[in-house]
Amino acid sequence: MPGVRGVSRRTTVVATALLLLAATPAAAQTVPGRTVDPSGTFVAIYENDTFSGNDRYYTNGLLFAWRSPSYDPPAWLAGLTERPNLLFPSGGVARWGVALGQKIWTPEDTERHDPDPTDRPYAGWLYGSLTLMSYTPTALGSLELQLGVVGPSSLAEQVQSNAHDLINVPRAEGWNYQLKDEPGVNLILTRQWRVNRPTGVWDGVSVGVVPSVTASLGNVATYAAAGGMLRIGTELEADFGPPRVRPASAGSVFYQPVERWGWYAFAGVEGRVVAHDISLDGNTWRDSRSVEREPLVGDASLGVALITPWARLTASYTIRSEEFTTQREPAQFGSISVAFRF
């Protein structure tokens, strides 16, 4: 598949150029009228289809992420805010972060030793990421570079099998047919906006929207997405929505509350135009199982977030439309996260 190989090479070149551009020395700065944050944020995210009573398709996701404080960022990072562009909002404060994540996919029928060739292939994606971001009270831009591996080295079979043993659930039988080992690289650009208004009915309660656009380029996932989230509650200025495992709308790992306690409820939708998905299209350079991908995929989510003096807790439920042509019904899964400031 020379086209996909070309995409992978171009992704690496573009990622290197953008990171070098961001590394140009610049004086650290603060944003007038915006209190910089001396605290970083650590978050753990767990997604699983068990919350829907199923065990199929996108079946498990884990993400451990850290975001730096915005107080006195390094000169090379502060330089992001000095170049007005379509990604990073002008006059923003900068943060950077790292993450480690894993995603697991299985077919609908996991009892077959030789899986149905028209069903979703077994696959896993283990990756690390580096994120550079800048934000203002009304906008956020982020650049994320993911590097990892698809295939047996992703440890997807071991993680799922051990988890099933722990809860006394039968193991999936077809992992011998999972995608083969392949290095993966993805470059993801996201821009979000935030508009909040007091309800005028309940004291301290606001209503807000968080529109977003995303572009992903790489040999693991290439897509363009647009969506929006409606929120109602308190502390809407603390973040840009709950953190999620991509390709779901990612929200923000960091949170910066004003009060000790807060909450909000949210509902969101996102649509994606998908040009490549290795978990469906199969390996780039080697023969593997594959199915015909749907070019248009949509998510609908709802949930709640609770901000306490000790942590931010979020829970959400997502329905994802069919991702391949022979998929019989939408995928459904739940997501929970806990974040700490330090």
TrEMBL record:
Q: Which InterPro entries match?
A: LpxR, Put_OMP_sf
UniProt signal peptide = 1-28
Q: Pfam family example for this protein?
A: LpxR
Superkingdom of origin organism? Bacteria
Concerning Gene3D superfamilies, the annotation shows: Outer membrane protein
Q: Which UniProt keywords apply?
A: Signal
Name the record gives this protein: DUF2219 domain-containing protein
